[in-house]
Design brief:
The protein is α+β, with helices and mostly antiparallel strands. Helix content is 34%, strand content 28%. The chain starts with a helix and ends with a strand.
Length: 222
């Protein structure tokens, strides 16, 4: 894949969030609509293209922990808020390339995580689990060695302890498990077809109106 090849040529060990999502989208994985902005003039164009509410994030390959560095603003609802967020984010980015990602704001009460890790013995392994702030706290995950088939993916989904949150609960629609399974299959295929990919982390994968959407993503390169 050209994007990955270029990053390796540049001596980089990770893709930016924007680039990571481009890779995911090329494998049919649903991602948020987003635009990269490098000056205030482009910001207005991006706002009108995506529409409110918005999320805005600092975007560079060397930035892995955006929340801790104050590089995320959520639920932006007018142009004034957007320009203020742009100034604050670029000021906080320090020496990094001052690119800001303007992103469709996806809302949902259920957050999942999907990932890939390259095991020295088994090769690419696909991971599924409870996402958001609960990923590290509860460690509610399941794994399979890639490639995986539909049956494997559906088994993974039902293996986590919290699998009942995928059902119709508290007025929420049931999660489209076929879509989830397709994402897991695609992640396994991505790992098999791109040996330079060491890890993939999609967290959170938010469930909006029953459909999964990758809201944040990181691809780490070997």
């Amino acid at each position: 894949m050209k994007l990955i090849d270029q990053a390796l040529k540049d001596g980089r060990t990770a893709l930016s969030e924007y680039e990571s999502k481009q890779v995911l989208a090329s494998y049919g994985i649903p991602v948020t609509q987003e635009e990269l902005v490098i000056n205030p003039e482009d910001l207005s164009k991006a706002i009108h293209k995506i529409g409110y509410p918005l999320a805005m994030k600092g975007c560079a390959a060397e930035i892995a922990h955006k929340t801790e560095k104050g590089l995320i603003r959520l639920d932006i609802r007018n142009e004034g808020e957007a320009h203020t967020a742009y100034k604050d984010i670029t000021a906080a980015m320090g020496g990094a390339e001052k690119t800001v990602m303007v992103q469709q704001m996806i809302k949902g009460q259920r957050e999942l995580v999907i990932g890939l890790t390259r095991d020295p013995q088994f090769g690419p392994c696909v991971m599924f689990g409870l996402g958001g702030i609960f990923t590290e706290v509860l460690e509610d995950t399941s794994f399979r060695i890639a490639p995986i088939e539909k049956r494997d993916a559906l088994e993974m989904i039902l293996e986590i302890k919290a699998h009942k949150i995928l059902e119709a609960i508290r007025g929420m629609q049931p999660v489209d498990k076929d879509m989830l399974a397709d994402i897991l299959i695609a992640i396994g295929r991505l790992g098999i077809e791109n040996e330079a990919v060491k890890e993939i982390d999609i967290n959170p994968l938010i469930i909006s109106a029953g459909k999964p959407v990758a809201v944040d993503a990181l691809v780490v390169l070997a």
